[in-house]
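Data availability (excerpt). The following record was deposited with the supplementary files.
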Amino acid sequence: MILSVAGIHFHYPSRTVLKGVSFELGKSQILGVLGINGAGKSTLLKCLNRILRPEKGEVLLEGKNLLKMSGNQIARRMGYVPQKYGEEKLTVYDTVLLGRKPYIQWAAAETDFQVVEKILRLLHLEEFAMRPIHELSGGEMQKVIIARALAQEPQVLLLDEPISSLDLRNQLEVMELIAGIVRDHGLSAILSIHDINLALRFADRLLFLKDGKIHTLADRGAVTPQVIQEVYGVEVILQEIQGYPLVIAKNCCRGIEERHEA
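Predicted structure:
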């Protein structure tokens, strides 16, 4: 296993969010983190790279405790794609170059420029290199932020709801991009995600959070309708259509509709 997370606890002043979360991640795997709003998905990702400092627990990457490393040391090992990104008036090239910050001491070197250019080619962003990022579409912007994380040359990518504001086409393009990077470049990825169908389609394993703890951690083929119902409180049907898993929610508001009809 490339990553081992053991006993992560975290609380905000108003409430406890994570209560002893533990799991492992293998090389070239995608782990999807799911749960209702407020379950702690984003908090968990931020604890893994010490944006938030856990009260207890360890995050071991190839046996080394990330929580005892400096910010630059962590950034060289974990790339982070936030849920929201500011609208700074930087070009695409300069935004991706920011991913080299953990390696730059006084000024960017030729090696840094070479890494940026390689990643722009990898993600087919060369034609956007000099365009200000605030002029990009949502899908283009998300690819740029993923490119910035890849410029850190990490072993693990953390992606916080990377498709939440995208249309269907861009959701598929971004998920296929993440899957291809993990498959072809030996990275691993952890992503928080609301869309269960896309999680079942692209993630190797799924981690469901409930009440601050792991309710279920399973390979995608082992996820059952009962698990989804217990986590989300919605009865579902889980089928496979033309080789793709599909979760269909039954009507959870039947009682309300019946009262309205009456």
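Summary of structural features: Confidence is low (pLDDT under 50) at residues 255-262.
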